[in-house]
Specification:
By secondary structure, the protein is an alpha+beta fold. Helix content is 15%, strand content 39%.
């Protein structure tokens, strides 16, 4: 079987309500007055894991960004995307970037 490891970037939009619903529904004891979500990582492969990184608003330090990591392993792909308003991604073969492409069928 021939496989390619493709790399790239993704952007996603969540409304504040969607983020709060995700955390409230899947992170026991999540306190939105203490934590502010600053990043979400999604791993989909042999398992589906959503990791939420939230800034600890009660433990701010000068020069540092204290975050707490919350792993969610109770969601399916389909359930997770109910929380996402919009997403967009492009992946490339190793060593290729969007800057190099010359699209010929504009």
């Amino acid at each position: 079987m021939n496989t390619n490891d493709l790399h790239g970037k993704i952007s996603a939009r969540f409304s504040e309500k969607q983020i709060q619903d995700l955390c409230r529904n899947h992170i026991p004891g999540f306190d939105a007055t203490q934590f502010s979500v600053i990043a979400i990582r999604v791993f989909a492969g042999t398992e589906f894991i959503v990791t939420v990184y939230a800034k600890d608003k009660l433990n701010e330090q000068k020069g540092k960004l204290p975050v707490k990591k919350f792993k969610i392993e109770t969601l399916s792909h389909k359930e997770f995307y109910n929380y996402v308003e919009v997403y967009n991604y492009t992946v490339f073969e190793e060593g290729v970037s969007a800057d190099e492409l010359e699209v010929t069928n504009k």
